[in-house]
Amino acid sequence: LEEREGAPPVVILSGHGTVKTAVEAVKLGAFDFIEKPPDSERILIAARNALGQKRLCDENRRLRLSFDERYRMVGRSAALEKVWDAVRRAAPTSATVLITGESGVGKELVARAIHRNSLRKDESFVQVNCAAIPEELIESELFGHEKGSFTGATEKQIGKFELANKGTIFLDEVGDMSLRTQAKVLRVLQEGEVERIGSQKTIQVDVRVIAATNRALEDEIEKGRFREDLYFRLSVLPIRVPPLRERPEDVQPLVEHFVRQFCAENNFRPRLFTPAALEELRKNPWRGNVRELKNAIERLLIMVEAEPIRPEDMAEVLRRPGADEPSGASGGGTLRDFKEGAERAFLVQKLRDNGWNISATATAIGTPRSNLYKKLEAYGISQERDG
């Protein structure tokens, strides 16, 4: 008997049965073995038990989560188990999901887990980072445009909602959308239709929407920056992903996972951390959460030659740039060095003040968002590094 997931249970009925053949049949996967002539009561009991076991197996299979290896959620904490339970409940439905949590906690992994365990798993998973797309282009990205509909529209573009038809669209950093764009997204959720820029024709779409944000949308609603009706539409199934500091027991399995992953990808020999080193990692605040931890582990594997890695080996590698003094504040260097160091420190502080929200920071310092992105790239500023 070939064992297949979801296959019906098998009961063998034979007139040439012996104890040996019965044992062999069960070893090969048969649920039961009945000798001829069959007794009707015996058959009914065997059928009832076999079907009962199948229901249990189907239920267990439903409760098991499937992960793409590249996007596997690693951990064993009770806090993370709550997230998995929410994913199990959300995945089989088509309800919209709002994933909240700090930057770097793994909101994208949760979104991908929901899609992979849903009925839409064989269709497209389309990701849109609402914070990374300039304001003037986001509507075109989401809904598409017709050729010649605005300056620079030299070709027709299919929007992300159309590309995600029958599948899932993941709106990351949804709190960064303008009120105008929010109104159009609300229409898609309410009516199931989109309209390309420059077209009067509506297009029906069947899309499951998952949104994520690291902002408190309730506060944004009070400040008039986020539509309350869209918030209620998105948060049918809210899932909060806790920060790493609230689940320190996940640090060790994450470290082991990142070590295996990095060593396999880069042909490094497997490395170990001493218990004291792991304890140091557990005590770290990890303001950049899992993303920051992953970057730190990769840095340690490259920079530290000792085996196993000890706390003293990690001190220099894990020291935050600028922790001792503000960049550019020392007397050395040129005037340009000082000005750039001061500008970098200014930007980092403003980003912290605005919860690392790019749009809010750009508004606060009076610069276009595109210019702020250029500055972040030029100075190597990131929440993982400068959180």
- Structure annotation, total helices: 17
Task: Label the overall shape.
Answer: flat
SSE-based structural type: alpha/beta
Report the count of strand segments. Answer: 11
Strand order of the biggest β-sheet: 4-7-10-3-11
Which key phrases capture this entry?
387 residues
Description:
Strands 4-7-10-3-11 form a 5-stranded parallel beta sheet. It has helices spanning 19-27, 40-63, 78-90, 107-116, 135-143, 160-163, 179-191, 217-222, 228-234, 251-266, 275-283, 289-303, 311-318, 335-353, 358-365, 369-379, 383-386; strands spanning 11-14, 32-35, 97-100, 125-129, 144-145, 157-158, 168-172, 193-195, 202-204, 208-213, 237-240. It is built from 17 helices and 11 strands. It is an alpha/beta fold. The protein is 48% helix and 11% strand.
How would you summarize what this structure contains?
The chain contains 17 helices and eleven strands.
List the helices and strands and how they pair.
Blueprint: E1 11-14, H1 19-27, E2 32-35, H2 40-63, H3 78-90, E3 97-100, H4 107-116, E4 125-129, H5 135-143, E5 144-145, E6 157-158, H6 160-163, E7 168-172, H7 179-191, E8 193-195, E9 202-204, E10 208-213, H8 217-222, H9 228-234, E11 237-240, H10 251-266, H11 275-283, H12 289-303, H13 311-318, H14 335-353, H15 358-365, H16 369-379, H17 383-386
Parallel strand pairs: 1-2, 3-10, 3-11, 4-7, 7-10
Antiparallel strand pairs: 5-6, 8-9
Helix pairs in contact: 10-12, 12-13, 14-15, 15-16
